[in-house]
Amino acid sequence: MKNITVIGSGTMGNGIAHTFAQHGFEVSLVDIDTGALSNAIQTITNNLDRQVKKGIIDDYVKTTTLDRIKTFTDLQQGAAGADLVIEAATENHEIKLKLFKQLSNICSDDVILASNTSSISITQIAAVTKNPGNVIGMHFMNPVPVMKLVEVIRGYATTNEVTNVIMQLAKTLEKDPVEVNDYPGFVANRILMPMINEAIYTLYEGVAGVEEIDTVMKLGMAHPMGPLQLADFIGLDVCLAILKVLHDGFGNQKYAPCPLLVNMVTAGHRGVKSGSGFYKYTAGSKEHVVADKFIRK
What we know:
alpha/beta; Rossmann fold; N-(1-d-carboxylethyl)-l-norvaline Dehydrogenase, domain 2; 2 domains; eight-stranded mixed sheet; two-stranded antiparallel sheet; 10 strands; 15% strand; globular
């Protein structure tokens, strides 16, 4: 396996492209937006510069990594010759099904089609393809170049051979793959999202403020960041989408998104990516300034 196509140049897509290229793979990064592709290459360059500054890599590795990444706006051109395609598009059911149906027609039957989805059923995605046995979930964690975990999700039809190939591939990337079965939210988000949702309810009901809730979880539970800051980092729109998948999939009220989360996303407060969420984020600064108090019931 040598040629990797990554679809989607956002936070996860450019992180996946960076990681594969740094480990010697030829990467085609595909996005319909040329501006997004330019931003992705700049982000990868900045992250490589950070690695150089920390002594993790040298300038030669930086240069060769960037040389291995080619960008495309045409899906057919970008997926041509791919041994593996990894979809990292928006966490939207319809978009993913449409993409995989297209990929199934573009790619040869032996190409493995993987999704970086954090919650959407791999079995449903595979069902729209010609070869469901070659469809699998490869859920990386953010930031991809740093985080070691990869959830490898087997759909109902995913073959043992494909699973073994992806497990070994993740190890080649110096990641720690964990095989899980295809149920809503898989493992990571089935556990994480209810915790984040409960933290939002705790704020919504006036039990404590943003900083207080995060401080309790950081100091009391040894979490590296609090659940509200983590929600901002993930993206509040992504959290909401995952909770909807969990709620629809299990039909259990405990997964119902908090009204405060729904209202914040509707109002455009999506976390770090929009500049405001549970915290406000100033350009070029790592400091987090607590946002104005939220209206609670």
